[in-house]
């Protein structure tokens, strides 16, 4: 097998234009991915086809042309802007006489460079192992032979079978450790829920400006850069909003079109922050010509992780790059904020975003003053169990007068459970 390329290696990029819309990839995105991986681009080869070739993905003539370019420029790796099958990678490496990486392998490589936390490293390793397990045979011929030598002759597993068994064992071990991490995250989410702290999760296409916005809102120092997948490990910070109180803001990994399924599966624990959020801030780079395609892609990933039902507030970012654009809030027919136009980099419209957040989150919070007579004391116990009593006193009749504050969903459940008995106890709405 050819040595895996290291950061800083010299690459030839290959981009194929297909007539099929679903197979199309953006060349500019490949160039950004390659730059984010720290790889130097020597040349970009483009071609067009109606459908990929089963053997080489591209035509044999174009493959020979790329092989000449690789030899002339002394390139170390050829990177395709498409997903290749293991046999296609193997066949192309025979022609090019160098390492071949597809789009999925490149994204995995960037993730491996970006992972900082123990959890992030485990998630990336799991995705890599699942990807590699289908490609074990590439370039190796000895893997199909059984071990030779004294004490190893005769029946037994081949080297390929040994490697597959070791891979399966490692994948199982990582899954067990990630399960522990998922349980720890779940405990954290449960304790936040008990404390009635709303969670707002930042989602969006990679490089949309999520981390810059996160830093601006929370005065944190999360790594933010004009490159794809600058953020990999999720970061949580507490933010105080007037009329709402403390909220948890979560910065998450960016999405990208044709995000490898292994990555989505590996980052399940991380993406659960998005699934269980009270509100999603969908950050969109509106200065990008392909903002609509990118928005659709984010929605597709949200559907894939079952987070498409979570309420969203659209954040139209980078208006400083658009002529004549000013910060503003767009509202629906019910006067609810649905879109905020800002520039996180230039700190434009941040107050409007905070105002929209307060409006959206306070709509989901119910505040009531209740008079609870002694014969309904069980209700007081229920309210304490929900951890929603903010103040309590006695009136002259010996009743408890309590101020409660809880999510609207909990209040509706309580009304339903008490079968209408609660309405008579409400003093103020």
TrEMBL record:
Similarity field: Belongs to the TRAFAC class OBG-HflX-like GTPase superfamily. HflX GTPase family.
Entry function: GTPase that associates with the 50S ribosomal subunit and may have a role during protein synthesis or ribosome biogenesis.
Species of the source: Alteromonas arenosi
Assembly with partners or alone: Monomer. Associates with the 50S ribosomal subunit.
Protein name (database record): GTPase HflX
Compartment(s) where it occurs, according to its Swiss-Prot or TrEMBL record: Cytoplasm
Molecular-function GO term, any one: hydrolase activity
PANTHER family in UniProt: GTP-BINDING PROTEIN 6-RELATED (PTHR10229:SF0), GTP-BINDING PROTEIN HFLX (PTHR10229)
Matching Gene3D superfamilies: 6.10.250.2860, GTPase HflX, N-terminal domain (3.40.50.11060), P-loop containing nucleotide triphosphate hydrolases (3.40.50.300)
Pfam families per the UniProt record, alphabetical: GTP-bdg_M (PF16360), GTP-bdg_N (PF13167), MMR_HSR1 (PF01926)
Principal location class: cytoplasm
CDD domains assigned to the protein according to its UniProt record, in alphabetical order: HflX
Cross-referenced InterPro entries: EFG_III/V, G_HFLX_dom, GTP-bd, GTP-bd_M, GTPase_HflX, GTPase_HflX_N, GTPase_HflX_N_sf, P-loop_NTPase
Signal peptide: none
Gene name for this UniProt entry: hflX
Domain Hflx-type G span(s) in chain numbering: 198-365
Keywords attached to this entry: Cytoplasm, GTP-binding, Hydrolase, Magnesium, Metal-binding, Nucleotide-binding
């Amino acid at each position: 097998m050819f040595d895996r390329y290291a950061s800083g290696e010299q690459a030839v990029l290959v981009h194929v234009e297909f007539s099929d819309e679903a197979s199309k990839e953006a060349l500019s995105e490949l160039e950004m991915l390659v730059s984010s991986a720290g790889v130097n681009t020597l040349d970009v080869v483009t071609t067009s086809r109606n459908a990929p070739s089963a053997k080489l993905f591209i035509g044999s003539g174009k493959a020979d042309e790329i092989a000449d370019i690789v030899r002339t420029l002394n390139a170390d790796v050829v990177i395709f802007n498409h997903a290749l099958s293991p046999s296609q990678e193997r066949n192309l490496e025979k022609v090019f006489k160098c390492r071949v990486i597809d789009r999925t392998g490149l994204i995995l490589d960037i993730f491996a460079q970006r992972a900082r936390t123990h959890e992030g490293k485990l998630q990336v390793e799991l995705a890599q192992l699942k990807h590699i397990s289908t490609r074990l045979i590439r370039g190796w011929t000895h893997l199909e032979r059984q071990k030779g030598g004294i004490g190893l002759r005769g029946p037994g597993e081949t080297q390929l079978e040994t490697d597959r068994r070791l891979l399966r064992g490692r994948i199982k071990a990582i899954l067990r450790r990630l399960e522990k991490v998922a349980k720890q995250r779940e405990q954290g989410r449960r304790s936040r829920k008990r404390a009635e702290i709303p969670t707002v999760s930042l989602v969006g296409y990679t490089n949309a400006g999520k981390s810059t916005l996160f830093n601006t809102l929370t005065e944190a120092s999360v790594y933010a850069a004009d490159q794809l997948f600058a953020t990999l490990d999720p970061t949580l910070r507490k933010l105080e909003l007037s009329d709402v109180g403390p909220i948890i803001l979560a910065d998450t990994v960016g999405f990208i079109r044709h995000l490898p399924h292994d990555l989505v599966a590996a980052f399940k624990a991380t993406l659960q922050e998005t699934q269980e959020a009270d509100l999603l801030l969908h950050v969109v780079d509106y200065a990008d010509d392909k903002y609509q395609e990118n928005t659709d892609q984010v929605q597709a990933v949200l559907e894939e992780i079952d987070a498409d039902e979570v309420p969203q507030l659209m954040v139209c970012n980078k208006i400083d790059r658009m002529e004549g654009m000013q910060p503003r809030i767009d509202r629906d027919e019910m006067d609810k904020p649905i879109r905020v136009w800002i520039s996180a980099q230039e700190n434009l419209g941040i107050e409007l975003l905070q105002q929209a957040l307060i409006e959206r989150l306070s709509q989901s919070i119910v505040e009531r003053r209740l008079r609870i007579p002694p014969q309904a004391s069980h209700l007081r116990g229920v309210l304490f169990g929900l951890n929603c009593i903010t103040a309590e006193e006695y009136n002259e009749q010996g009743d408890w007068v309590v101020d409660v504050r809880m999510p609207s969903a909990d209040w509706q459940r309580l009304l339903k459970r008490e079968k209408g008995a609660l309405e008579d106890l409400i003093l103020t709405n």
